[in-house]
Each structure stands twice: as structure tokens, then as C-alpha cells.
Amino acid sequence: MVFKKQFKNKNKPNKGYPVNTETGPIRAKTPRGNQVIGLIEQRLGANRLLVKCFDGKERNCRIPGSKRRKLWIRPGDTVIVEPWEFEGDKKGNILYKYRPAEIEWLKRKGFIKEVDGEF
Questions:
Q1: Res 3: pLDDT
Q2: Which of 50, 77, 104, 118 is deepest in the core (most CB within 10 A)?
């Protein structure tokens, strides 16, 4: 027995992420404006995470309500952080989580120098 919903989701395209199977992604999302790339260090509970950003600051970041059920984040993941206008050096929002192929693309293009936890 096949339900319409299962059949429909099964044939969905790749969620809008352009990917070339030979070389990885065609492009990856890059930080814009005051956004920064960061590395998750620790989960603090209640949708809060400790993130070490590439601008040399540690921020206590949260996952906004619109992305709570969509973003599953663990320590070691690379993300885009948007610092708050108020206390922007200490707090921020997590906007996007990079996939492994996108991290390789960012390294090749020079956006990330080292991801191993040491900046």
C-alpha cells in the first residue's frame, strides 16, 4: 500500500541544493554583511550553543524558532552565525549548517583556513 504523501516525498528533488556528484557542490552559501562562519564547540541546552567564530570571538548562539526543527546541530559542525546588534561580540543566531562537501568548497575558495578547531 503506497500513500500519496510517501510517494510525493520520495520523488522530491534534492531540496534545492545544487550538487555535482563528481566534484561536490557547485556552490555553497557564503556569509553576507556582518555574518561569520563558526565552529560548534558545545551544546548548552535549550537551543543554545557555544560557537567559536572565525573572527576570533566565542559566542553564545541560539537556534531561532523558525529553524529549531530543521537544523540538527552537533559539536564540530560548521555554521553561519549572525551576531546580534546588541552584545554582538557575545551572542548571535545560527542561520545555516554546512554539509561536508560545502566545507570542502569553502576551503578551496579560501573562506575557511582550518576547521579542526584551531583557528
A1: 45
A2: 77
